Amino acid sequence: MMTNSDQYYSFWSFGVFFFLSLCPSFGLNIDGTLLLSFKYSVLEDPLSFLDNWDYNDATPCLWTGVTCAPDMFRVISLVLPNSKLIGSILEELGFIQHLHTIDLSNNFLNGTLPVSLLNASELQVLSLSNNAISGELTESIGGLKSLKVLNLSVNAFVGNLPQKLSFLQNIKVVSLSKNLFSGGFQFVEVLDLSSNLLNGALPDNFDGDSLKYLNFSSNKLSGLVSPQFAKKIPANAAIDLSFNSLTGEIPESIDLSNQKTEFFAGNTDLCGKPLKKLCTIPSTPSSPPNITTNPPAIAAIPK
């Protein structure tokens, strides 16, 4: 059964391609027309990076920030980081059929992520860090079948992490730090979820075989670092659990013992070898004294 967002996406997709089919064959190609929609949505371009984006060109392959496949003049890359662009990301970008890379990091883009962009099946790199993009990261992200790198750090995303993020078989690097995410999490090779609102306990069961770097610092994680969690951490993986509310003794495993001390700092009730802080041994109640039925001897009181 189609959701409202799916119906909207299907209607929008049909409308865009119907409009493009009416464009004259001798004008700018489809990918260029879609990119121009993004240009016109940009409110300010102080460094004039988009000045040579012109409708009179046959293709956008010589435009600033645009790369085309050499054999078919189709856009495969849009890279405009640090360009001080002010605007939003339109649905049209998601309809560029062979787009492999989008890097619009370190700009002033706002609004939400369009559904079409999360259904771009050939997209491999999506980097939108250091912008002002808000809203939830929806389950539509499951449409990014080819995604390898996802960097949405330093934005204003909210809500739970989508479960379908863990279903993306090709993904290797996920950086979602400094947002307002909460809920659960899954594992890849590199996962940075620092400075969010993650709460609850560390999971005892997760697929961490490929993990090389995990950063959960500056969240609201609580409870024990269980031996089951420790066993799932691969050798030589870096695990940053600093500045949470974790408690108890850090399990004595080779992987955790080799972590830097600062990776456990800021958890006031955490102790163990990596912190060089001994754990308090709880005292056990002593055995009660033997009680006899004989009455105690009473010394004679002199007159």
Automatic annotation (TrEMBL):
The keyword Transmembrane applies. It is found in: Membrane. Pfam families: LRR_1 (PF00560), LRR_8 (PF13855), LRRNT_2 (PF08263). It is a single-pass type I membrane protein. One of its GO terms (cellular component) is membrane. InterPro entries: At_inactive_RLKs, Leu-rich_rpt, LRR_dom_sf, LRR_N_plant-typ. GO terms for biological process: defense response to fungus. Residues 30-68 form the Leucine-rich repeat-containing N-terminal plant-type domain. Its main location: membrane. Keywords: Glycoprotein, Leucine-rich repeat, Membrane, Phosphoprotein, Repeat, Signal, Transmembrane, Transmembrane helix. Belongs to the RLP family. This is Interleukin-1 receptor-associated kinase. It comes from Solanum tuberosum (Potato). The lineage of its organism: Eukaryota, Viridiplantae, Streptophyta, Embryophyta, Tracheophyta.
